[in-house]
Amino acid sequence: MQITVPTLSSLQLDGLACVGCGADDTEQQPTGDRSPSGAQLFRCTDADVCRAQRSVNAQFPRLAALRAESAPATAWRSLSLGDVSTIPVAELLKTLGVRVVEVDGELSDDGAAGALSGRVGEATIRIERSLPQADRERVVRALLARISPAAQQYTVKADRPVRMVPARVDGHTVLIDCPAWCTFDHVAEDALFLDDVYHSTDTVTLMAPRVGAEDAPLVNARLNADTFGSDEATRRPLLIIAHEDEALYMTPEQAGVFADGLVAFAESVRALAAQAGGVR
Ligand SMILES: [Zn+2]
Ligand SMILES: [Zn+2]
After folding, report:
1. What is the pLDDT of residues 110-169, one digit of tens each?
2. How remote is the CA of residue 65 from the centroid of ligand 2, in Å?
3. pTM, whole model, 2 decimals?
4. d(CA 22, CA 9)
5. Ligand nearest to the CA of 175
6. Per the count of CB atoms within 10 A, which of 96, 103, 129, 272 is most buried?
7. DSSP labels, 157-175
């Protein structure tokens, strides 16, 4: 029996991919039908596997279409960095033709958590077996964000917390490196230029009670890094201690000295209050 189904891809019509889901890497058996060219058509042996793949296809139609064309380089070209940060990792790996292998110690000796070698369509990512499960996805995504059709070899460092997050810049979503301590919502705030994107923790504020008035904010502190800024000095993580309209930038070492000073100051305040007879 001959069938002509125009929606089948060339891979499916050549019997190289499942006619149900388009997968070319599942266990398959002949359907009994032939394409107009005479090739046997195949379908996943396991109906559950086929159904699961179809549901992924439905969720990511563009990905399914790209895979049907079987050109990782085409898929790579049309993937945005936002896609790389949101599409399930397993799907990205399959689409870009990348396999992941675990290694023991060969990367950590160089301070790396993961390494990619190869090009779109034929690349291998090595990750340390000791890398916590929670870190694996972001290491793999960080590596995939740099893959290209040209053969390359590069690593992602272990000592630097790697986190690729989407950020809005001038109306576009890009993927940026964001330190693990950053709680800033880079998507909610649309920066005009990449230079304007900065990392920040939440602000902690010291409130001061007053006689006959509400508590007043006295001073606040947060951690900040203008990673993409033009000022070299403020690209590294610095503490910003802000009082009214003055912001003081401190290195972590200076902030430690400042914290010791605050403790001494607090003891002095407590002693003064004790002299007034009010505090234990
Ligand atoms: Zn299938
Ligand atoms: Zn950030």
Report:
1. 778 899 999 888 899 999 888 877 778 888 988 998 888 778 888 887 655 557 888 998
2. 33
3. 0.44
4. 8
5. 2
6. 96
7. ESSS---EEEEEETTEEEE
